[in-house]
Amino acid sequence: MNQAEWESLCDGCAQCCLSKLEDEDTGERYVTNVACFMLDINTCRCRNYTQRLQTVATCLRLSPDNPELFEW
Questions:
Q1: What averages of pLDDT result for each successive group of 10 residues across the chain (72 residues)?
Q2: By Cβ atoms counted within 10 A, which residue in 12, 20, 27, 54 is the most buried?
């Protein structure tokens, strides 16, 4: 799968743009309702998607190579 094909799988759920917390004792992860400042909540899209990794230090680049990031 090339990068364009991978990107086309996004369904606009914006789960990747929500802050997550992890319990240090159990490793359990919790999704909050706190969104990245770059998220346009009307479209569920990043306001500057192409520059997101440079603009937001905690932005995740999701790919088939890091499936552990999908545990939400």
A1: 79 87 92 94 90 90 72 58
A2: 20
